[in-house]
């Protein structure tokens, strides 16, 4: 077992899928198999369709740590008691002045009050949350994670301009419903307009060589809606910034929406 462990360790250190005659999947199967009874007992009931997962559980999930011992040539897993989280979720913090300004025009939401909308419980447990419910399930939003203060600050300033100009109710541009803040005053993400586009933005809707390519009339409609929205932004001295087809969403009513006001940037 010692020799097998050393050879498997070399595979993991190599970073390759296969080393010699050993595949990395062989290593994972070897490590995971003894712990399957633990996983079965610890996992939530996937058949329970009433399970509710909030944004509190996603960035701060319950976690377990195992140690795999080898005793008398047999693999024996051990569940280790621990309370300290092995990682910290990506989040952003603003200074007090910026937070005070945000409070004058938008709302703050606690992660436990935001329910992740999912088709199956399994999706809510491991897929990144996108569609969420606020206001006791009455409002559907798109949850956008915060990864850096520079872009998110610029985006919030733009949403404030959109709000003050009243554009969020007049044209098809994404609006801000609120900000998700945890108990430590970290900003976890933004709650934005949810556009049900079936995960197919404009960049995936136009296929000149395919039968489902939009008709000229549909294209003209989208162009008109984009021109109306963009003109309204420019009239109020608002810059869209990150202009690309992937940031144009076509909803279930075949209407075009402008999204993502964080602005484009180049690394460095």
Automatic annotation (TrEMBL):
Name this polypeptide is given: Protein kinase domain-containing protein
Pfam families noted in UniProt: Pkinase
Superkingdom per UniProt: Eukaryota
Parts forming coiled coils: none
InterPro entries, A to Z: Kinase-like_dom_sf, Prot_kinase_dom
GO terms for MF: ATP binding; protein kinase activity
Protein kinase domain ranges (all copies): 8-268
């Amino acid at each position: 077992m010692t020799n097998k462990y050393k050879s498997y360790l070399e595979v993991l250190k190599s970073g390759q899928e296969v080393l010699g005659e050993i595949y990395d999947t062989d290593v994972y199967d070897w490590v995971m198999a003894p712990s399957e009874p633990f996983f079965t007992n610890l996992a939530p009931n996937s058949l329970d369709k009433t399970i509710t997962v909030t944004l509190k559980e996603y960035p701060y999930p319950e976690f377990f740590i195992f140690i795999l011992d080898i005793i008398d040539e047999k693999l024996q897993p051990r569940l280790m008691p621990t309370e300290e989280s092995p990682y910290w979720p990506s989040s952003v913090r603003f200074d007090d002045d910026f937070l005070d300004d945000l409070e004058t025009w938008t709302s703050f939401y606690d992660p436990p009050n935001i329910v992740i909308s999912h088709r199956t419980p399994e999706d809510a447990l491991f897929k990144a949350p996108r569609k969420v419910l606020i206001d006791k399930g009455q409002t559907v939003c798109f949850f956008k994670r915060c990864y850096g203060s520079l872009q998110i600050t610029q985006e919030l300033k733009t949403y404030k301009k959109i709000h003050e100009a009243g554009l969020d109710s007049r044209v098809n541009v994404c609006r801000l419903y609120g900000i998700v803040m945890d108990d430590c005053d970290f900003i976890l993400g933004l709650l934005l307009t949810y556009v049900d586009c079936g995960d197919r933005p404009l960049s995936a809707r136009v296929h000149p060589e395919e039968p489902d390519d939009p008709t000229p009339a549909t294209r003209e409609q989208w162009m008109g809606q984009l021109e109306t929205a963009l003109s309204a932004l420019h009239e109020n001295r608002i810059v869209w910034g990150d202009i690309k087809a992937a940031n144009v969403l076509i909803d279930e009513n075949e209407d075009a929406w402008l999204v993502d006001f964080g602005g484009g940037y180049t690394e460095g």
